[in-house]
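Obj: model holo form, ligand = acetoacetyl-coenzyme A.
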Amino acid sequence: MAKITVIGTGTMGSGIAQASLSSGYDVTMIAHSQKSVQEAASRVESGFDKAVSAKAITQEQKLAMMSRLSVSDDIASSAGSDFIIEAVSEDFDTKEGVLKSAEKYLGAGILATNTSSIPISQLAAGLSRKDVFIGIHFFNPVPVMKVVELIGGDSTSPNTISKSSEFVKKLGKTPVEVKDSPGFIANRLLMLFINEAARALDQGVATKEGIDTIAKLGLHHPMGPLELADFIGVDVCNDIMLEIFRRTDDKAFDPAESIKRLVKEGRLGRKSGKGFYDYAAKA
Ligand code: CAA
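Output (holo structure tokens):
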């Protein structure tokens, strides 16, 4: 397998591109506008710069990997890929539209979605090549996180699952098969944790710093739940919680008041400069 196409140039799309380039694949990124085409390559490059700073790779290696990256705003450029991986925003209609367009250029490859919560069988319903469609759910930051959830839909073939598993291993990550159910495993666990932390904050049980410090020093988490919500994107967490809440009717996933308020105010976390914390003030 040699060519990977990643549709979407955000945090996840650029992370998947970087991880694939690092493992020797040629990568094509598909952007939705000319402006995003220009931003995509610099986003991937700044990911590699972190690896250069950490002395994990040299500048020459970075340039060699970047030379295998191409970016286009034409989805037809995905033709001939071994994997086409959709990583656009967590919205059913957006993902379905992108997947239907990508399917036309699939050839003998596999079509994957990086959805964090939408059922695979439901996304597959509008596709004609259901047997080669699968959920490959990466974690942020993709180049660093070592596990990937693999989610087959009702019609995903065993061959698609085993090829996807091989691909994930080639990226140096551990694939874990998960049933097609709301939030899969990662977000079923994580969103409860983040939501409960936000509820405790809303109830005045502790400060945000206090909650995060307890999680870091007492539970040995690398980030506290509120810091992590800012890192993932408060809007992304809100969308995932709502998706799971709608499908399970479990009130524990109904976003806390502070999460709803931050989304309404456009305080989406690190990417917008403010979320639970104020990053502009730290800069
Ligand atoms: N490429 C290569 N290496 C990178 C990198 C990149 N893009 N970004 C960071 N790194 C490397 C750094 O160079 C550094 O390497 P060394 O240890 O060799 O020096 C290492 O990763 C750690 O990075 P930093 O030193 O910058 O920062 P840190 O030690 O504070 O760790 C973190 C940052 C890895 C993000 C850590 O805080 C962490 O693990 N946080 C939790 C992240 C998490 O839970 N992610 C899952 C979110 S849930 C999800 O993604 C699923 C979903 O559907 C919402």
